[in-house]
Design goal:
Blueprint: E1 10-15, H1 28-36, H2 50-58, E2 61-67, E3 72-77, H3 80-87, E4 92-99, H4 108-112, E5 115-117, H5 132-138, H6 142-146, E6 155-160, E7 177-182, H7 197-206, E8 208-209, E9 212-213, E10 220-225, H8 234-250, E11 254-257, H9 282-292, E12 296-300, E13 322-327, E14 351-354, E15 358-361, E16 367-371, H10 373-390, H11 396-406, H12 425-430, E17 446-450, E18 453-458, E19 461-464
Parallel strand pairs: 6-10, 6-11, 7-10, 11-12, 12-13, 13-14
Antiparallel strand pairs: 1-3, 1-4, 2-3, 5-16, 8-9, 15-16, 17-18, 18-19
Helix pairs in contact: 7-10, 8-9
């Protein structure tokens, strides 16, 4: 029997105002932090108008989630006549389709699956320092660990597409997961066969075994799912907005998201480079809003450095965040790591971490390696959480500034792939500014075939398609 997947059209309905304000949609922790860092409440902290949502339901809409920051709702509307009637309601400003029934694109499998080595990479006599500690040492985090700082008191949110078994794996301390949110309309269980990408990303932050440790193993965390399994559509971007708002509501300090968008199943929605200006897409604007509200947002730059589209993805173009590129353990950029700058000329990525053959934990608690800015991002999030636990009276922008100023290319940033370079966590803690003057990398990658293998030549070095040095 063939099961047919039927996906209904989804719309983002924008409202003109919030006439009846209730209590702000913030937890006691979030309100306390706003007061601590002198961040005033504003219109965007209040929920959308309930009577407006009730009206949408009367016209046949099913509400998926709302956005208090953009004053609207993501909803399924089945009938064209209902769409037309809703658009005419006096409190509605726009009705924008964000998902349709166009077929899944051919890029689906490549974008959804990390490049992983599903085996134990530890040789029998290989010491711990050659596993997780080496990638932590790349940005000099170990001195903070040795001083007793591991992210305690800091709340992290990891947003992704799947967290298979993340609630039962022994290498995660379950008491530090405070909850989870699912902003997709997928029917599968949050911790079921939803994918391993989020579980692997969490390992870089919170994984802990006798042979492995993450970057911030004592931080508390929430898990959030925004990426949908069956479609690549702008609805997923609004799911991410909902996740950022929820993270703000619970008082998240560090938000780590290894997702990005530019290409959709319906090509009419696909972005071009001019959209990466920090002001165009809702998730980019939401990431900037989150930063203004006291959150340090860490976003993967993207893995399109080898492709025709080689730019960063959205929301990596957001202002006041940390956009993260991928380097190998020697500090050399992965050829796949997406290019900046942002369309309006800002340095992107901001910083880099290990994302070429980076080491995390699989479902068996064994070490496994993979490639991607997806994996560099939680390492930077973990660095930020650990640094913040050592400097609890500083705010998100001060922590971000310390990280950037400590990076090895701070004095001469590369506007293509390295950005400000690789941070030094201990120097950031001490408030030191990097004086290293590393030459900028400006050459573009050149692809060529040798036998049946594709290689990329860049900056005098040759890489495989996975970003490894040519054997």
């Amino acid at each position: 029997m063939i099961e047919l997947l039927i996906l209904l059209n989804v719309f983002f309905v924008s409202f003109k105002d919030k006439p009846a304000k209730s209590a702000p949609a913030l937890s006691p922790r979030a309100i306390e932090q706003r007061a601590k860092w002198h961040i005033p409440l504003d219109e965007s902290d209040y929920p959308v108008e309930k009577t407006y949502l009730d009206s949408l339901r009367r016209y046949g809409a099913t509400i998926h989630h709302t956005s208090r920051w953009f004053n609207g709702a993501t909803c399924t509307i089945e009938e064209d006549k209902d769409v037309e009637q809703i658009a005419q309601l006096p409190f509605v400003t726009t009705v924008e389709m964000t998902r349709d029934n166009s077929p899944r694109g051919s890029f689906y499998a490549r974008r959804k699956q990390p490049a992983m080595a599903e085996d134990d990479v530890r040789a029998p006599q290989q010491p711990l320092e050659l596993l997780s500690d080496r990638q932590l040492a790349l940005y000099n985090l170990l001195p903070l660990h040795e001083a007793g700082y591991h992210g305690q008191g800091i709340l992290i949110t990891v947003c992704d597409g799947g967290f298979t078994d993340a609630n039962t794996l022994s290498h995660f301390r379950q008491k530090q997961e405070l909850g989870h949110f699912d902003f997709t309309d997928d029917s599968d269980d949050f911790y079921g066969e939803t994918g391993l990408h989020g579980t692997y990303c969490l390992g870089f932050i919170s994984g802990l075994t006798d042979e492995y440790r993450g970057a911030a193993t004592q931080a508390d965390y929430y898990l959030m799912r925004s990426e949908e399994a069956e479609k690549e559509s702008p609805k997923e971007m609004d799911n991410l907005v909902a996740a950022l708002e929820a993270a703000d509501s619970v008082g998240t300090n560090v938000f780590s998201v290894s997702l990005g968008y530019f290409l959709f199943d319906n090509d009419e929605w696909s972005l071009d480079y001019s959209c990466l200006d920090g002001q165009t897409t809702r998730p980019t604007r939401a990431a900037t809003i989150a930063a203004r509200k006291g959150m340090l947002v860490c976003v993967a730059a993207g893995n399109e450095g080898n492709d025709t589209w080689h730019w960063i993805n959205t929301p990596a173009d957001a202002d006041s965040i940390l956009t993260v590129g991928a380097v190998d353990i020697n500090g050399t950029i992965g050829a796949f790591s997406s290019y900046g700058p942002s369309y309006d000329g800002r340095v992107k990525p901001d910083v880099c971490a290990a994302g070429v053959q980076a080491t995390t934990l699989n479902l068996s608690g064994k070490t496994t390696r993979g490639n991607g800015t997806s994996f560099a991002t939680p390492l930077i999030a973990g660095l930020a959480a650990t640094l913040w636990s050592a400097l609890p009276n500083e705010n998100a922008m001060q922590i971000r500034e310390r990280i950037i100023r400590s990076a090895n290319r701070y004095g001469n940033p590369d506007r293509n792939q390295y950005g400000y370079g690789i941070p030094d966590a201990y120097a950031a803690y001490l408030g030191r500014t990097s004086t290293t003057t590393t030459p900028s990398v400006t050459s573009r990658p050149v692809k060529y075939m040798q036998g049946n293998n594709l290689y990329i030549r860049q900056n005098g070095k040759t890489y495989t398609i996975l970003g490894m040095s040519k054997p």
